[in-house]
Amino acid sequence: MVKSEDRMVGYCGYNCHLCAARSDDINVRRKLVDAWRKYLGHQYYTAENVACEGCKSEGNKIADKQC
Fold it and tell me: Which tens digits make up the pLDDT trace of 29-63?
């Protein structure tokens, strides 16, 4: 059986359970931010401010505040 958290898909289209922005490991988030910067041109994001709890969760931390 798949837990409901494992099936949560954010507005960005990512499966939240698999998204690196939700990692507790800052090095994992740093790699994600570096890729966003390189391939998508995002400049605002840092490993520190990308600590997402999921845009559809009850938490208040999301990767993109404009989402």
Answer: 999 999 999 999 988 889 988 888 877 777 667 76
Cα distance between residue 10 and residue 19, in whole Å: 10
| Cα–Cα distance for residue pair 7/38, rounded to 1 Å | 28
The 10s digit of each residue's pLDDT in 6-35 is 677 888 788 888 889 889 999 999 999 999
* 51/62 Cα distance (integer angstroms): 7
Rounded Cα distance, 44 and 34, in Å: 11
Q: Is the whole-model pTM more than 0.90? A: no
Helix (H, G, I), strand (E, B) or coil at 9: strand
What would you measure as the largest C-alpha separation in the chain, in angstroms?
Answer: 39
List the domain boundaries for the chain.
1-67
